[in-house]
Amino acid sequence: MMDIAGIREHLPHRYPFLLVDRVLELVPGESIVALKNLSVNEEFFQGHFPDKPVFPGVLMLEAMAQAAGILGFKSQDKTPADGSIYYFVGADDLRFKRPCVPGDQVILHARILGDRRGIWKFAVRAEVDGILCASATILCADRKG
């Protein structure tokens, strides 16, 4: 498990773009399960379909990528303070299956599929109450910050 302080050590993002609230499970070199709580107070809900607020898909993708970034950093025993940064560089097979709304607890899953010359490939998905909301295969580049 990892609380917000540990997450801030392993991601360079800060509010309002820090989209992981807690790490529930982590197996370095394999997988991560993380949590994003969606509060009606999030700024993006004020302008993204304000009469029927929906978590923007691009932010859902970013949240999944941030979970994968934590997994990558922990798998290499590095942090951004070590001069390393993970750039989100691509997504394949991205699908949105269910909208996420205020009050949802989004569970973010990432699994390492492989890495080659600093390019990491992850299978990611987001669920609410065990129902798939989004999934993709993403690429992240590990580079000097």
From TrEMBL:
Family annotation (PANTHER family): 3-HYDROXYACYL-[ACYL-CARRIER-PROTEIN] DEHYDRATASE
Enzyme superclass (EC): lyase
Protein encoded by which gene: fabZ
Lineage: Bacteria, Pseudomonadati, Pseudomonadota, Gammaproteobacteria, Cellvibrionales
Gene Ontology CC: cytoplasm; membrane
Annotated protein name in UniProt: 3-hydroxyacyl-[acyl-carrier-protein] dehydratase FabZ
Functional description taken from the UniProt entry: Involved in unsaturated fatty acids biosynthesis. Catalyzes the dehydration of short chain beta-hydroxyacyl-ACPs and long chain saturated and unsaturated beta-hydroxyacyl-ACPs.
Family label: Belongs to the thioester dehydratase family. FabZ subfamily.
Catalytic activity field: a (3R)-hydroxyacyl-[ACP] = a (2E)-enoyl-[ACP] + H2O
